[in-house]
Amino acid sequence: MLAQRGLQQSMRRFTSSPSAVNRHAALLLTSSTTPPSILPYRTPIRTASTTKTTPEAATSLLATQRLHRPVAPHLTIYRPQVTWTLSALNRITGSLLSGGFYLFGAAYLVAPLVGWHLESASMAAAVAGWPVVVKVLAKFTIAWPFAFHSFNGVRHLVWDMGRQFSNLAVQRTGWAVVGVSTVASLVLAMM
């Protein structure tokens, strides 16, 4: 196949180059008895017209062209599925957990310099004054992302072993992760 393409390209170059041999061959090939299928190949030449523009005019032209381009439908045309919803939620919970740990760690290190009281005893005393419903909601709010991200991480480790990777199993394990995370978070929040 490669040799055939190379032969075709060299024949095209040979027939399109202006030489005496080519002109003579073209006269022979274009006689009335020659079928049109073996006429020499000529590369079509198309001239393009260009105009000089200023950078500002080019930028405004691009801006108007971008306004008329179609916009990809993105998420608006797809039915929400448990797979991509949980994938996004896994990334969001991971970002929130790591960001929260970094913020609290930085605040804990800076607290003595600024005069904040973030030691365990003062935080326990502050939380002890909250109503029970607020305590449970606060603990659930912290526990659910942690539990979900942990159980979904186990789910991904199972996938890395090549198991539970069919469409039905992925949906089933996704809903199982949501259920187990919620139950585990409720248990942790009631402690």
Ranges where pLDDT stays below 50 over 5 or more residues in a row are none
Order of helices and strands: HHHHHHH
Mind describing the biggest β-sheet?
none
Give the helix level as a range of percent: 55-70%
- Helix/strand-derived category reads mainly alpha
Question: Quick check: average pLDDT?
Answer: 84
For the CA atoms, what is the radius of gyration?
Answer: 35 Å
How many beta-strand elements? 0
| Percentage of residues in DSSP E strands | under 5%
Tell me the overall shape.
elongated
Please report the distance between the alpha carbons of the first and last residues: 73 Å
Q: Counting H and I runs of at least 4 residues, what is the number of helices?
A: 7
Secondary-structure map with pairings?
Layout: H1 2-16, H2 20-29, H3 55-67, H4 82-114, H5 120-128, H6 132-160, H7 167-190
Note down, in words, how this protein is organized.
By secondary structure, the protein is mainly α. The chain has seven helices and no strands. The chain has helices at 2-16, 20-29, 55-67, 82-114, 120-128, 132-160, 167-190. It is elongated and about 90 Å long.
Keywords:
191 residues; 7 helices; mainly alpha
Summarize this structure briefly.
This protein is mostly helical and 191 residues long.
